[in-house]
Structures are given as structure tokens and as C-alpha cells.
Design a protein that fits this description.
This is Arsenate reductase. With about 120 residues, the protein is an alpha+beta fold. Helix content is about 40%, strand content about 25%. It has a single domain (about 15-110), classed as Alpha-Beta Plaits (2-Layer Sandwich), CATH 3.30.70.
Length: about 120
């Protein structure tokens, strides 16, 4: 099942590639998600923890996502230790997409998305 953050009318990623992108986010969240603070309906701060390549991995993935879903704004900031802050904003008409991404992160951490299956 594709998450709500892949709206057909706003995503330029070919349909066949969408499950791969979903799996990449699932894997990032399953391996690295520590917490999220959904500050407003259109803004959330994810804290990720992991290895030395985490900031680069998160940046590459978020850049690719912005390339197909240009309504997203991601800001990746290395934090203390092995933590990375990923700030995500969307326009008000895409608030439900951000809410779905937040839910997906929680589910991936709990193993509920099938993130580790191929």
C-alpha cells in the first residue's frame, strides 16, 4: 500500500518507482527514527540517529523526494553525536501528506510497514 504522501496529482515519480521510494523512507525510519515533533499541521521535526553516513543518506533521499514532489521542503542538519535533524515543511494544502509521513515514521519504527521485506 502506498502512503498518502505520494499524491498522484503532485508527484512526478513514475508509478513503478513509487514502491521503491516508499521502501527507502521505511528503511531510513526503521533504522534511524528516534522522535518527531509535529510543530504545526505543515511542519515537523524528525530526529534520526545512526552512523556517520546518516546525514548524507537523509540528504540524498530528501533531495530525490523533493525532485518528484516539489511541495516538500526538507532541511537536514547534523546534530550532537550521531543524530540528524530532518525538518520537513509542506504547504497547507498538503498537510495530510505530512501527517501521513509522520504516521509512516512511527509505523516503520514499530515494524508495521514491511520496511524490511522485499
Amino acid at each position: 500500500m502506498l502512503p498518502a504522501w505520494v499524491p498522484v496529482d503532485a508527484c512526478a515519480l513514475p508509478t513503478v518507482e513509487q514502491p521503491v521510494r516508499v521502501a527507502e523512507f521505511d528503511a531510513l525510519f526503521a533504522e534511524s527514527f528516534a522522535s518527531v515533533d509535529q510543530r504545526t499541521a505543515t511542519s515537523a521535526r524528525f530526529v534520526l540517529t545512526g552512523g556517520a553516513d546518516l546525514a548524507q543518506r537523509a540528504q540524498v533521499l530528501s533531495d530525490r523526494e523533493t525532485g518528484c514532489c516539489s511541495f516538500f521542503t526538507f532541511t537536514i542538519t547534523p546534530a550532537d553525536g550521531d543524530s540528524v535533524v530532518m525538518d520537513v515543511t509542506v504547504p497547507s494544502e498538503r498537510a495530510e501528506v505530512l501527517a501521513a509521513l509522520v504516521r509512516r515514521a512511527h509505523e516503520a519504527r514499530q515494524g508495521g510497514t514491511g520496511a524490511r521485506t522485499a
